[in-house]
Amino acid sequence: MSENFQEILHCTDLVFNPNGLVISLLHKKRWRLALAKINCSRALLSLFSEVLAKHKKIYILPSSATFLNNIDDQPCEDTGIFFVVNQTILSEVVKEKNHQELFKLGGAKGIAASLKTDVNRGIDGALEDIFGRQEEFGTNAYSKPPPKGFFHFVLEAFKDPTIIILLVCAALSLGFGIKENGPKEGWYDGGSIFVAVFLVISVSAISDFRQSRQFDKLSKLSNNIQIEVVRNGRRQQISIYDIVVGDIVCLKIGDQVPADGLFLDGHSLQVDESSMTGESDHVEINQYPNPFLFSGTKVTDGYARMLITSVGMNTTWGEMMSTISEESNEQTPLQARLNKLTSSIGKVGLAVAFLVLLVLLVRFFTGNTTDENGNKEFNGFGKTKVDDVINGVLEIIAAAVTIVVVAIPEGLPLAVTLTLAYSMKRMMADQAMVRRLSACETMGSATTICTDKTGTLTLNQMKVTKFWLGEETVEGKSCVSIAANVLELLHQGVGLNTTGSVYRSCASGFEFYGSPTEKAILSWAVLELNMDIEKVKGNCSVLHVEAFNSEKKRSGISMKKVEDDTVHAHWKGAAEMVLKMCSHYYDLEGNVNSLNDFNRMKFERIIQGMAASSLRCIAFAHTQVLKAGHVNPNGQQKIQDNGLTLLGLIGLKDPCRPGVKTAVEDCQYAGVNVKMITGDNVFTARAIATECGILKMTEEIDDGSVVEGVEFRNYTEEERMEKVDKICVMARSSPSDKLLMVKCLKKKGHVVAVTGDGTNDAPALKEADIGLSMGIQGTEVAKESSDIVILDDNFSSLATVLKWGRCVYNNIQKFIQFQLTVNVAALTINFVAAVSAGEVGESDNGHTGGSSSCYRKTNHGAHGKAACGPNRATYHQCYVEELISTEKPTMELMGKPPVGRTEPLITNVMWRNLLAQALYQITILLTLQFKGESIFGVSEKVKDTLIFNTFVLCQVFNEFNARKLEKKNVFEGVHRNKLFLGIIGITIILQIVMVEFLNKFADTERLNWNQWGFCIGIAAASWPIGWLFKCIPVPEKPIFSYGYWKKLRCI
């Protein structure tokens, strides 16, 4: 060993102590290392082998540089900006948890030096430095499978069974049409079906494609997490996509680890690696034996700083993400209900179509149908040509398919998709990012909102406004009147027991980083107590840390003073919690006084007085200890937390947000109960709740509207269920209390929305019907557990989300009413015409009869709004765009009570409206079908055109009726919806073109002015009819509950 030692003495310094071997590796220039002797590395490795055999502890001090970094037999060459290390080595060290390679590279601090990262100040942060690191090591972005293109959705649309049936019918119709009437005119029927199918597929594909793109955009936005890094000595927030190798990242509870890296320093750090390993147990991260941090994992406890060693596709998470494609095919509850409704109606349509098919086939084969010349179409087998038989049967099948087409309202599920997509886009503009589609519609049914206080009802802009030392309040520049020993302890308690930081710049003065509470306390200590945080940290060393959590509502440290090696414990937290830990207190002169019962009551009154003024009360306490702490059963150091001396009390003011009282009143006006759940004490909670309008000034103190978390959890199950509705404020609550309240409310049938920002709020957010996390103060764990992210942390935005939820539900109901009116009318008329006279078969002009012709024209190419096929009809899409997607939320919606869980989708009001319009249309169109020729003295073809034109115009006018389900004035606000009016105008223009100019293609006849006036007059009559029927009251109880249709109540 001595020979090896002599050979490398000029390269290393060795210092022995009783606890083990400490190796301090001197900083060497790369060019000097390149000139070192070849056997230096061999001697060094030999020496380490001998040392490791004799000593169990080896510490690599921060002065470690790049001496051990790949000393090869050949001199190293400079191949880039960063010498020695490369991406392959860095990736392998972390991914494989390679301790041996990490040791060779000098540990985390040795790697930091190789990456030109100052472990205290971070990287330089200049653009050249950032670009150089990105070029050398890559960017923090993942390569995902390419998004699905437009033609993928076109192919998906072709897979619809109804589209396939229609294409077959179109091909057969085209073939037989050309055979019978020649290519010049024989293609009309088949061609019109092909055009309809083309338009349907186009609209369906475009809709799905746009939704997919919007989902990708929202997904990218939700993944754009803000990360706190240290660059050039300053903490700053940057996008996760801007992280580079060499960055120093600050982690705290609830953060997502942004990339792979190594633990530098910190306390009590634990991470959830379930996203990587599937194991739910939390993993402790420290300098040894586990300094490895992986991208995508979540911090569950403690805080730390990490060094980034791999980003993007070079991380373990990046490799996983490259094979995963996020899908946006989530089906919301409303879509599921509409699919069920569509299926039920489709079955009815199929039954009617089958019945019509049987009737028409019997009529055809019994010789009861005639061609355009009045001759029987079927004269018996052997007497009728096979082609004529096939043509007749195909026409009958086409008529039956037409009935199925008209019966199935397949636009309903698509209507939900379109309106949800539109609502998501508009809600984003209103500071609400939807992570799960179902939350849009569920929010409209919310009956209770459980909201946080800090940052949601208040601005989260803390400022220290009160300071009590002993039994006296200290005003202004307080450091002058405070005893020196107490002032020193306050500096220690604030400067060391914190997760925030202070940066002093020549230009802008002091800059404070951390949570709003930490920033307020640091600002107070620096500006009013003249605290020099760097001096405090230089005079003391932190031994152990107990991080703040929402259960204990306190944080503590044990520290050692450099000058005398004495060990002290400092605690900071909720005033009444810390007060319970104290047995003495300091007065203004620095004297220590006993905290007897009388004095304790005085302090409790001081705390209550500040809380009643809406102040958050924080207490500081201290004690000198003989030992740094003992180990608890979990193997962690425990800091002394009893027999403390109270240093002082401060009160932080957090003003209520402007407009929050109005937003709370809006929710209450809408029948939604607002409950405030906070960790503050009961007096602060009551004061803030009263200021926000959650509590009324007239409410009694002991009426059960305000409880503490411990009181609520100690209730029996029966007591909780009895009192939960009356509770408006729950103070000093823990996340488990919030979860307990959510469960109780759901058991009582409430639809519950919950706000949360902390990691421990995740269970309550998941349990709630709608979880709402905070975009600014919320942790990544909370955001991932939520359904909607409130981007500005503002309760007013939450009220806006409630409006949008009701708007979505209301617009869907409007569409259902309109669509079912069309379906009921069409199905009834086709069935009656077919059964009574066989008019769905051949008419005297060789085409389908009047009623069927009307709907085939409407659905297969003649409707001016656009051809509406049997699948996702373009007619439906246009209406969805104009009526659903463009109708914005109004205060009128907030005046209605919330929709409960079991409320039917089709209400009695909707049944009244749709049946009134459907019966009117059925009466008019059947009259025209059977008596139209004699009434107007026109040919059958003109009569068919009248039926078609009247039917289309009835739907146009009925669109106005559908705008308002209950209000009689259906024109209110219509002038503000320019898109609605525009599409109505285009519809009418296209209808005129179809009737007057596309006669051969649409099989129509031109109408004179009188006939147009009749069609318009009949259609316009739907307005007064709708007004009259809305005067008829309907029972609140769903009509299906009176008969045998109870099972349809779920619709």
TrEMBL record:
Membrane topology: Multi-pass membrane protein
Enzyme kind, highest EC tier: translocase
The keyword Translocase is annotated on this UniProt entry: yes
GO cellular component annotations of the record: plasma membrane
Superkingdom of this protein's organism: Eukaryota
Protein location: Membrane
Keyword annotations of the record: ATP-binding, Calcium, Calcium transport, Calmodulin-binding, Ion transport, Magnesium, Membrane, Metal-binding, Nucleotide-binding, Translocase, Transmembrane, Transmembrane helix, Transport
Transmembrane segments: 161-178, 190-209, 345-365, 396-422, 979-999, 1011-1029
Function text: Catalyzes the hydrolysis of ATP coupled with the transport of calcium.
E.C. number(s) listed in UniProt: 7.2.2.10
Record InterPro entries: ATPase_P-typ_cation-transptr_C, ATPase_P-typ_cation-transptr_N, ATPase_P-typ_cyto_dom_N, ATPase_P-typ_P_site, ATPase_P-typ_TM_dom_sf, ATPase_P-typ_transduc_dom_A_sf, ATPase_P-type_domA, HAD-like_sf
Keyword Calcium: yes
Protein name as it appears in the record: Calcium-transporting ATPase
Recorded family membership: Belongs to the cation transport ATPase (P-type) (TC 3.A.3) family. Type IIB subfamily.
PROSITE patterns, per database record: ATPASE_E1_E2
Residue intervals of the Cation-transporting P-type ATPase N-terminal domain: 101-178
Molecular-function annotations in GO: ATP binding; ATP hydrolysis activity; calmodulin binding; metal ion binding; P-type calcium transporter activity
The reaction(s) this protein catalyses: Ca(2+)(in) + ATP + H2O = Ca(2+)(out) + ADP + phosphate + H(+)
